[in-house]
Amino acid sequence: xxxxIESLSEIxxxxxxxxxxxxxxxxxxxxxxxxxxxxxxxxxxxxxVLKIEHSHKKEICLGVNGVYYKKNQLPExxxxxxxxxxxxxxxxxxxxxxxLSDNEFKAALGVLKNKALIxxxxxxxxxIASKEEIxxxxxxxxxxxxxxxxxxxxxxxxxxxLENLKSRKNIIxxxxxxxxxxxxxxxxxxxxxxxxxxxxxxxxxxxxIKDFPKGKKFRRYDLNxxxxxxxxxxxxxxxxxxxxxxxxxLELGFKEMIGTLATxxxxxxxxxxxxQDHPVREMQDTFFIKNIEGKILANPKLIEQVKQAHERGxxxxxxWQYQWKESEAKKVVLRTHTTCLSAQTLAKLGQxxxxxxxxxxxxxxxKTFRNETVxxxxxxxxxxTEGIVVGKDLNFRHLLGYLKEFFSKxxxxxxxxxxxxxxxxxxxxxxxxxHPERKVWFELGGAGIFRPEVTIPLLGxxxxxxxxGPGFDRTIMEYNxxxxxxxxxxxxxxxxxxxxMIIK
Length: 504
Known about the structure:
Blueprint: H1 2-7, H2 10-15, H3 23-30, H4 34-46, E1 50-62, H5 64-72, H6 75-83, E2 89-90, H7 91-97, H8 102-114, E3 118-121, E4 124-127, H9 131-135, H10 139-146, E5 149-150, H11 156-166, E6 172-184, H12 186-191, H13 206-210, H14 237-251, E7 255-256, E8 262-264, H15 265-268, E9 288-293, H16 300-311, H17 326-329, E10 331-334, H18 339-349, E11 360-369, E12 381-390, H19 396-409, E13 415-422, E14 425-435, E15 440-450, H20 452-459, E16 465-468, H21 473-479, H22 493-497
Parallel strand pairs: 7-11
Antiparallel strand pairs: 1-5, 1-6, 2-4, 3-4, 8-10, 9-10, 11-12, 12-16, 13-14, 14-15, 15-16
Helix pairs in contact: 6-8, 10-11, 16-20, 18-20
């Protein structure tokens, strides 16, 4: 017992005289704030003085509309009063005579019909219940008078009324209340209620080190006592991964491309030789912005060449053989890929006169949007990593080399490529990486070499352009062992704290 008393901190000693009281009473009697009292109780629990128990209780409270209806009557009561003195009355007359919104009137009408108090015939409302039944309080009215109340205290009739009111807007609110209580152990019963004085030394000061007081003792410290875990601030793992991806591209000599999240269909589709009747332009695939006509910020020659590429072809191709519409190209969309940034970058390079000056390496990592059904593997927004390399002497093996190097630095040493098709690249490949833990190949996205129908309008000449745009979120998912894409945007702090940190 003596050792225990010598180990008590100042806040523990301060609340011990009040341990026969509830937590609220301890706070009131001691004058100590709630957080400090709870912390002191936790320390005492570690010292076997008491045992803490937590419980969760649901409390039924009034919502905004509930407060109003409790004071001014429920819509169904207002309605039944309006018609009880008439054997039969037209519905529209009833509607005009009561001060209820359309929603309130419809809801009240439905409630009264369900309670078998009224009947509707030939556009007229008729009371079919006795005056005694009508004058009785509705269970919903009785419940409103009781609120706030704990859920456990509700009667069966109250619970039925609760379900009825919960289906209506802002009448009822259900909140969860956490309750903390404690009980004294045998040791606690011996010291509770006592005022414990102490002249123990609580901290080491320069004065004590210089001249230690005779007869004094240090307070005992339990090094095994559990203390709250401290979590330092850190960046979100998604932002960390994006920064790491950018760092890799920059180290490989690439320049970053940036641009707006909303763009015209011209840059998102047309400049990339995607036909105007292509399925990716449908509303079930793409988010269009209503009532806004965009401006194609490009020189007339570029627009004319894009039109030609679509209608008749360019550099020996036949094009798509349809009438290209500028109005369709002006539609504004949330970018479906970051490849629109590549198109805009190539257009800027096309303004340079010297072909050699057009050579370069560019990348982007940014948000893109697709009208997808959200599930474990799909979202309506996701990150994509984009890259282009411009140069006359480039070939397909250069493309594969850049991709292998990037993904190896992201932790995937096994990369494979499968032949594929995209409207704007030829040849085209799908990128797969080997997952060492799951022992499976999984797809990341596409890559290829831009077709002349893309490069000639944008660059003014055909120069080889290596291009890729795999999804970046898949890479993040696998690295962080995420099974559901939605976890990347969760607010679960415990999960976020346990994610891997990228050590730079």
